[in-house]
Amino acid sequence: MSNPLLLPLVAVIAGILLGRGFEVQVPEALAAALALAVLAILSHVKAGPILTRATTLAALVFSGAAIAAWHRPGPTPELDAGARETVLLEGCVVEPSVFSMDREQFTLELDTLPLVQGARARVSLALEDGDTGDLLSYGQRVQIQARVRPPHNFNNPGGFDYVWYLARQKIFWTASMTRGTRARVLPGRCGSRIMAGVFALRTAAIERIEQLYPQDASPGGNYLTGMMEGVLIGETSKLDRAWTEDFRRTGTFHALVISGVHVTVLAGVLLFLLRLALMPEMAALTATASAAWLYAMVSGFSAPVVRAAGGFTLYLIARFFFRRARVLNMLAAVALVYVAWDPDQLFDASFQLSFLSVAAIGALAMPLIESSTAPLARAMRGISNLRADGRMEPRAAQLRVEVRLAAETAQLFLNGLLPGTRMPLRWSQQMVALSLRAVFFAFEMAALSAVIQIGLALPMAEYFHRVSFTGLTANLLIVPALDAVIPIGFVAVFTGWHWVGAVAGGFLTFAAKVAAWHANLEPAWRVPDPPPWLAVSFVAALIALALVARRRVLRWPTGLAVLGLFALLLWQPPWQRWPSRVHPGQLELTAIDVGQGDSLLLQLPRGQTMLIDAGGLLQFGRVRKSNLDIGEDVVSPYLWSRGIRRIDVLVATHAHQDHIGGLTAVLTNFRPRELWAGANFPSDVLDQARRLGVRVIEPHAGPTFEIGGVGFQVLSPPADYQPSKPGSPGNNDSLALRLTYGSRSFLLTGDMEKPMEARLLLDTLADHPDGLHADVLKVGHHGSKTSTIEPFLQAVSPSVALISAGYENSFGHPHPDVVARLNTRHTAILRTDLDGRATVLTDGQRLEFEIESWRPGLSPARLPALRQ
Asked: Most exposed among 51, 109, 141, 559, judged by the fewest C-beta atoms under 10 Å?
């Protein structure tokens, strides 16, 4: 077997999945692995190779289960502190201060928890104008005053598990230092001397980059400073999301972030220079491997760089023993070590993308190239040597003959075109051969890019909901440009030469312009989560293609099957979508957990989709730019997890940022047919919608109309409504809707407050005494005491109340008085801060609900009214 480590890797991974799925204990798994290992030894002596292999693989499976059980996390540590309580924390600075706009951040390893080894908190301090904060270094012991809270996820299907991401770094709390306070530095040092040296190198590199680009040297950072720090050493605190969006859209972001490519380029350049200096091969390889590990430490020990350094070390070992290094075998060896050390890496997107890209190259691209252009490209070497033709396969030898004929023709043409000159035949042959080698190289790069795009299509669709089409050509230009940035940039960092820094900056700017040009050509096509049957079929087809990649007869039909499933993955026609994602014949109202904001999904009985608001980050005073986009990172992933790729109607109740902050991303990603905007709406958002071909409607109170079998009535704003502050949005600008389906009704009020509730009572109840009743009420203004007055609640008389609020938010929403009024009426309260995503369904008669995180207070026994 040419890659003997692949099956053991598969067995260990299967064991890790087994250990996680069935809560296998370490002693049980080790006992089974040991027994099977003994059986494998005995069978090798008496039974034969088949039983030996089977028992060996089974032993590895149980070894993987033991690894998973050994690394299973214990209970989450807890601090005896309330969400709004200020406490004193002491500990060791393990990640130094990082400036991000007007906020200082560092990571503190707490020493106040003797029972929890290495538990950490990520600390932030809001800075005032002109304040530079405390420049804390690694290994300082400090004491701070802060409010501490555990991190919290946006609790929706398809959402990013931020809590797990931080826990893998042993970060279990976020702490906000009290304004005006400083970290008190305590006597003594802590941490590792090695890591202190690493962070000193990292800090020196950051300072040198800011000196190279002095126009960018500021706490917030600017383009060249932020991008160079990100590309060279993985420091992303100054990166603006807008700078990297074009790279994301064109599928070239992998070349921008710290990855194994950086190690490969730096190792290649260093190895070339050392060999040029006549250093022996093994000594040069050893020095290069050492430099790779040093770079891994300085760049923050990011997983892709560590994996690449490990792979280079394995290559060094293989060369030392005069073994041929096979790509897939080396990949399996690195993966075995890595998953044994940290099995959670299996579920990390970076790990999956790194290994799948290399696997795609080794299993699919290399066999394709070896069977097509590689022999022809090798045949162009020594083109003038006639004796070499006989040692080559027929098609390569034939091409060499044709190249020589073409070279003679070119020589005669040029000699006739330029009388008095005579080009040597050898030169002409070399020119034609080099031209063909360039063509073959371009084909191979395009093939590599295409294979990687297809091989990574499934995880790219699952994690990022995009598959790039322009990446085929963008990679050909951007990857070499950014590969040049790495060695040139490090030369600038080591020497401090500004002209070298300018050259590196020029390559970076060129790459950015290429990405921007390709991004304009990239279709605005986002991919929903594929149904399980399609994901399994696509993976099976890729594995089948890898197995038959060197067999021409089977390769073509298998390749066509892969391309067909790839097309289905991108297209996903309605007939193939997972049936549980929609509820035909029912009206669905879902409150998406967007933190302190609003976003409601309406699925109508006949299949139409409406989204009411898109969440956002509400900020006061000086606006601090955030790389978190609620529309892109929270709302859109939930809609994609439901298989939704187009919205029929997007409703923006009013223009506060916690309702429309994510609107731009939703407009771009889902291209709604209509946008309904509340009163006093900003013109720039309306203009963007019109540029995207979205019809803009500004509704006012009026009669009932029907969409998709549901009756809609706009209750507010009234036709004569005038905003109290034109151009400055207010809560009473909110668009309020009442929906009726069968005998059930929903009332959605946005952020409507007491004055508008009182007017609504007067305007509606005068003509229709039952005109405000609703079985389901979306409580106004996140449950604030400024809304949901008793007369209004009495008129609505809801059975279910939906409240969209942030977990432990600083506003105190929902207010206890509002909750008490709802409880007095025996209304079931669904809260996104406690329950996560909350859904109410009706077939026009019965009401049902489901929430993401069930809590004891919502037992079905409490809700007899909902089951009628």
From this structure: 51
C-alpha pair distances (Å), 166 with each of 119, 123, 137, 152, 188: 11, 13, 21, 10, 28
Phi/psi zone of residue 528: left (φ > 0), alpha (ψ -120 to 50 degrees), beta?
Answer: beta
- Residue 144 φ then ψ, to 5°: -135, 160
Sign of CA dihedral 198, 204, 210, 212: negative
Q: What local confidence, expressed as pLDDT, does residue 860 receive?
A: 42
Range in 123-132, 171-180, 656-665 the model is least confident about: 123-132
Q: pLDDT grade, residue 105 (50/70/90)?
A: confident
Cis peptide before 814 (omega within 30 of 0): yes
Omega before 717 cis (within 30°)? yes
Integer Cα distance of 211 and 725 in angstroms = 47
Tell me the C-alpha distance between 341 and 349, whole Å: 17
Cα distance between residue 328 and residue 550, in whole Å? 15
pLDDT value for 259: 64
Angle at alpha carbon of residue 822, lines to 816 and 827, rounded to 5°:
140
Tokens 């917030």 belong to residue: 220
> Residue 114 pLDDT more than 70?
no
Question: For residue 133, what are its two tokens?
Answer: 């904060």
Task: Please give the single-letter amino acid code of residue 97.
Answer: S
Task: Tell me the domains of the chain and their CATH numbers.
Answer: 6-70 (no CATH), 86-191 (2.40.50), 225-373+462-521 (no CATH), 376-446 (no CATH), 532-576 (no CATH), 579-620+628-867 (3.60.15.10)
| Cα 89–Cα 237–Cα 525 angle in degrees, nearest 5 | 125
The beta-strand segments (E) located in 687-806 are: 695-697, 705-707, 710-716, 736-741, 744-748, 776-778, 800-803
Sign of CA dihedral 381, 383, 389, 393: positive
Residue with tokens 């929902």: 814
Angle (CA) 787-788-791 rounded to 5° is: 125
Question: What b-and-e string marks burial along 85-107, b requiring 16 or more CB atoms within 10 Å of the CB?
Answer: eeeebebbbbbbbbbbbbbbbbb
Measured CA to CA, the distance from residue 129 to residue 622 in angstroms comes to 10
- pLDDT value of position 674: 94
Would you give the DSSP letter of residue 781? Answer: G
The C-alpha atoms of residue 611 and residue 673 are separated, in whole angstroms, by 12
One-letter identity of residue 80? D
Give strand pairing partners of 839.
Answer: 590, 850
Give the C-alpha separation, 694 to 688, whole Å: 9
pLDDT per position as a tens digit, 14-51: 999 988 888 888 898 999 999 988 888 887 766 677 88
Q: Which pLDDT does position 116 carry in this prediction? A: 58
DSSP SS3 for 384? coil
340 contacts 12 by C-beta, under 8 angstroms: yes
- pTM for this prediction: 0.86
Beta bridge partners of 635: none
pLDDT tier, 861 (very low <50, low <70, confident <90, very high otherwise): very low
- The pLDDT assigned to 130 comes to 54
Q: Which two tokens stand for residue 265?
A: 């380029």
For tokens 């709802």, name the residue: 822
CA neighbor of 88 nearest in space, from 30, 133, 141, 148 = 148
Burial of 148 (0-12, 13-18, 19+ CB in 10 A): buried
Q: What is the pLDDT of residues 758-814, one digit of tens each?
A: 888 887 766 665 678 999 999 999 999 999 999 999 999 999 999 999 998 888 899
**CB distance 866 to 851 below 8 Å:** no
pLDDT of residue 627: 75
Residue 421, pLDDT score: 66
Read off the tokens for 221: 């950072």
Residue 579: which pLDDT band, with cuts at 50, 70 and 90?
very low
52-67: per-residue pLDDT in tens? 888 899 999 999 999 9
What's the number of CA atoms in the CB half-sphere (13 Å) around residue 483?
A: 14
